[in-house]
Design brief:
By secondary structure, this protein is α/β, with parallel strands linked by helices. It has helices at about 5-15, 25-30, 50-55, 65-80, 130-145, 160-170, 190-205, 235-245, 250-265, 270-285, and strands spanning about 35-45, 85-95, 100-105, 105-110, 125-130, 150, 180-185, 210-215, 290-300, 300-310. The strands form 3 sheets. A 6-stranded mixed sheet has the order 7-2-8-1-10-9, with helices on both faces. Strands 3-6 form a two-stranded parallel ribbon. A two-stranded antiparallel sheet has the order 4-5. The longest helix is centred in the first third of the chain and has 17 residues, at about 65-80.
């Protein structure tokens, strides 16, 4: 990423508005009807919540996991009621080093065993549609903004448990909604991640889709051994402040505070998924009604389940 260009890129995105102008190919296909980012979800992927045993049998290793598990069930109901045309998911475990990778594979099919938790997540089959057109549109807009990015269109491109498990366990158990995974990039800072959120809002608006965005990751993330361990009281308060500002619609203030929050609370992947989420929300130029389903622990991390519905 060329960081000296970030401010100009964000200004240009804002000047065009979330929908931008229809592309020539959109005009040809009739996709120039305005779409919208109708839902935004802050969701959870930790193996203590995202297993078939937890999701469908309600079997949990500790009573403190109940609230988040039940919150994820509620969040899945919200997805089903909203019926989005596509889900764009930004998982903290789909990690790239230099470019942001957008997975536009037309069909995501495979069997997942989680590298870091094979005893908990193993042999999970998944088979859900993708959306190559939207994936390509994201890459087109990313490149136009000067962002380093790559389109994956490969049936062998592996998906991570932070992408697969929330979907198959809670958010779309039928595996019928098209999904476009987008990576968390180590070389991208918060501003670049925010720019990708703006691009997501812009692309779904121009493409005529009712889309949901999922930020799959923890808030505070100072990991320790012991799955039932909570964040420190200070970090829990930081997490609560983040959630309050998000629920109250203070999006610009939250974005301005995010670097300070990230330094203090050390959210997962430096808060890149949270920056992308805020970019998508602000880029949509809408207010969202918030439902804060739950907050809970996992190995010292804080995990919020929050659903935002466009008003």
């Amino acid at each position: 990423m060329y960081k000296e260009d970030i401010d100009a890129q964000l200004k240009a995105l804002g000047a065009r508005g979330p929908a931008g102008r229809p592309r020539p190919q959109d005009l040809l296909t009739g996709a120039n009807d305005m779409g919208e980012l109708s839902r935004v979800y802050l969701s959870v992927h930790t193996p203590r919540y995202c297993t078939y045993e937890a999701a469908f049998a309600g079997t949990l290793a500790h009573p403190d996991f109940r609230a988040v598990r039940d919150g994820l069930v509620e969040q899945g109901r919200d997805v089903a009621e909203a019926g989005p045309d596509v889900i764009v998911i930004n998982s903290c475990h789909l990690i790239t080093t230099f470019p942001t990778v957008v997975d536009g594979t037309p069909r995501h099919r495979g069997v997942l065993t989680a590298q870091e938790a094979p005893e908990l997540i193993h042999g999970v089959a998944y088979d859900f549609p993708g959306d190559r057109e939207l994936g390509s549109a994201l890459i087109e807009r990313g490149r136009a903004a000067g962002l380093q990015c790559v389109l994956a269109d490969d049936v062998h491109y592996p998906l991570d448990y932070g992408t697969v498990m929330p979907l198959v366990c809670y958010l779309d158990t039928t595996q019928r909604i098209p999904v476009v995974p987008i990576s968390v990039c180590l070389s991208a800072d918060l501003r670049e991640s925010f720019a990708w959120g703006r691009i997501i809002a812009e692309a779904v608006g121009a493409g005529g889709r009712r889309a949901a965005f999922v930020a799959s990751g923890s808030v505070s993330h100072k990991l320790v051994r012991g799955p039932e361990r909570w964040p420190s009281p200070a970090d829990q308060e930081l997490d609560r402040r983040f959630a309050r500002m998000l629920a109250d619609g203070e999006y610009e203030k939250l974005w301005a505070w995010l670097p300070e929050y990230a330094e203090a609370a050390e959210p997962e992947m430096g808060g890149r998924h949270l920056a992308t989420m805020l970019g998508a929300i602000i880029g949509a130029q809408r207010k969202f009604a918030a439902t804060v389903h739950a907050y809970g622990p996992s190995s010292g991390s804080g995990n919020y389940v929050i659903s935002l519905a466009a008003r």
